[in-house]
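thread from #wetlab-drylab

HS: before we spend reagent money on co-crystallization trials with magnesium ion, can we at least see a predicted complex? here's what I'd submit
DV: go for it
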Amino acid sequence: MARDGAVYACTSCGATQTRWAGQCPACGAWNTLVEELVSRPPGALKPTKATRSRHLAFEGLDETTPAPPRIVTGVGEWDRVCGGGVVPGSAILVGGDPGVGKSTLLLQVAAEAARRGQRCAYISGEEAIEQVRGRAQRMGLADAPVKLAAETSLRAILDGLKAEPFDLVVIDSIQTMWSDNHEAAPGSVTQVRAAAGELVRLAKKRGLSVILVGHVTKEGAIAGPRVVEHMVDAVFAFEGERGYPFRILRGAKNRFGATDEIGVFEMGDAGLSEVKNPSALFLNTSGERAAGAAVFAGIEGSRPVLVEIQALVAPSAYGTPRRAVVGWDSGRLAMILAVLEARCGLGFGDKDVYLNVAGGLRISEPAADLAAAAALASSAFDVALPQDCVVFGEISLSGEVRPVSRMDGRLKEAAKLGFRRALGPADLENPALPYTGASRLGDAIQRIHDANWDERR
Ligand code: TYD
Ligand code: MG
């Protein structure tokens, strides 16, 4: 029997149970239930002034609500992912691996916003003031009127934020904050949830925007309970492949803008710089395109992005051939290989297969299937695709090449970057580029094999 007032919370999904169990009944994770003390103020269950006699006022869908005002921070890629700037009174959670550049990004956001007259605070629970200041100096932001503090006590932070008016506050990170109302250790579910809850409440009450930094677990989820993700208005993931300078801010949830929008940055000696034209960054435009490479005309968020997909098909030295992917889903590679085998007669059973998305980008669009298949076929045949060709199209299990969204936008971006032909699904009216349509994967593979690029316009 649980002690009075004790509940067990899952560190993975945040669900609470009245008794401990080895496996969370809600999400099925093992060894994730931890005891949490809940203390209710005496008499909290009795109706109080605030809870008694409140009537629900219904409104119609057609009534007009003015668009929310926005704090334009001046970091364009950040503002884009927010949906045009930070909404006053909103809470944003930014997650990412350690060292990816979260502190750098948010210091930059706070400093740029402060330069534009917003009252900004940056509260670090991980670094000393000197460290933050030193970084700001290296980044050329030392003159920005940001108020710095190094603090982990939630009470001190809340008091500080109530004492002075602010427009934008960065809390770096939510896992280091602790509330003396709870006995649990900093970083525990209870503390993270309590700290996030208090800060979000303060944000709503005072019309102050709060940006919370969150660490990410090995599985890629934001550490601490999922409930924090539900509490905030927006969740952004800050990603980057080790060894590459590119960083991508990706919207995972956004109550005030489109999700799946991305912001692209490059990490340099003076912090992060915005990348206005991502295609130029992910594309290897110098030199000949080798066999096994195909340029995919993709869409990331609202923008077309061109990126090179590289494949290597090589004889396998072992009984079990290797399949390795970087920036691509291994399940999707298996599917494409299966379709190439079953529908086009290309065998990979005794071959190692490697697939790599250049530049450290991660592609999840099914529209990239044909480009991956083209790269694989090009490597298998040792026939290079034309230097100036882009590829897109979704592949079905039956071996069809399916149309994808915004084909026009993809072709226009390719044309802008100097590409002169495209391979994609059949039936495209007035393409912006000389266009080779293939309704079956077999046709596309045959063309690659024969280096036959007779276009149809
Ligand atoms: P940081 O913002 O501290 O990462 P996080 O808060 O996500 O843990 O960034 C750390 C990395 O960024 C570190 O490896 C050094 C690098 N960096 C630069 O390359 N240039 C810079 O100007 C700055 C400030 C950091
Ligand atoms: Mg940090």
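DV: The chain has three domains: 1-42, 76-276, 281-450.
HS: ok that's useful, forwarding to the group
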